Amino acid sequence: MALRFSLPFVVCFALTLGAGTACAVPIYTFTDLGTLGGTSSYASSLNDSGQVAGYSYNASIAMHAFLDSGGSMSDLGTLGGSTSYARGISASGQVVGYSTLSLGDTRAFLYSGGSMSDLGTLGGNSSWAYGVNDAGKVVGSSYHTAGLFQDHAFLYSGGSMIDLGTLGGTTSAAYAISNAGQIVGRATLAGGSAHAFLYSGGSMIDLGTLGGTGSSASGINELGQVVGASYFSGGGTTNHAFLREGSTMYDLNDLIPAGSGWTLNEALAVNEWGDICGYATGSEGQVHAFLAYRTDRNVVPEPGTLALLGMGLGALVVYRRRRQA
User: Fold this and answer.
1) What pLDDT, in 10s, does the model give residues 213-250?
2) What is the pLDDT of residues 54-77, one digit of tens each?
3) Residue 150, CA distances (Å) to 118, 126, 157, 173 in order
4) Spatial separation of the C-alpha atoms in residues 161 and 138, rounded to whole Å
5) What is the Cα–Cα distance from 6 to 192, expressed in whole angstroms?
6) What is the pTM of this model?
7) In contact, 231 and 238? CB cutoff 8 Å
8) Do residues 190 and 212 make contact, with C-beta atoms less than 8 angstroms apart?
9) SS3 253
10) Angle at the Cα of 200 (from 194 to 202), degrees rounded to 5?
11) What are the C-alpha distances in Å from 34 to residues 23, 42, 71, 270?
12) Strand-pair category, 287-294 with 9-14
């Protein structure tokens, strides 16, 4: 039986354009953002103004968070240690991430108005920030007890860090927050496996899996659509990218032709149109970015059915977060 969603997509891969293919994606001009003086740099997030946050080696071969605005890459510095990483950016250019301290612990930071602020912890020694919305609310994870290396998802708002708890287990982490304040991430169950969660209205909701033992949510849009990765029935420890809409989790691999040689492993972000990006692996082990692009962009998404309209090839920069389901 064909899998159906509420939005029409084509799935586009960052491969060489082949004969007879068509992908309704815009033509992009690619720009090398350079580095902070070292050999490598990595972009992790951007806003609608074209500002880019990420991290780069500097001339001293230390990794530092950066903000690129108007073609100029600025070193955001650290919280006293040697390294920092930017992971999210808001519409106003606020940047979040994490940095080492002078004594070696790691702390979530918010960079705003030219200054990097330590967001503290939930009581432990270290914390990490992954997402920020346009209201400046920050999500991430933090050790919650000194000397105990167990992280809990947090929401930082109004100067306070709030523990979002778990799904009955010992750990959790929040990776994205929408402007409506809905938060997604992963949390362990009492049995030890981790499931994707949606935190909304003060409650953490278990989003389940694609049939396997674990899952993790990476992104959410203003419509409440959630994307991420999940183990699937019979798949062992192989991840499949998913879209969760309403109460149903869909395997995005059911949208691509059988025998394509590709597996969509993780969906990392979903925008307000319902476009989804992530990464996939090929039959020879190669890893490429993918974009599931909504082709009908003139109608408001609403629950219903979706058909696979086609498959094509395009280009997209891949960014992979530090986790698995």
Assistant:
1) 999 999 999 999 999 999 999 888 889 999 999 999 99
2) 999 999 999 999 999 988 999 999
3) 20, 10, 22, 10
4) 9
5) 33
6) 0.85
7) yes
8) no
9) helix
10) 95
11) 29, 10, 10, 27
12) antiparallel
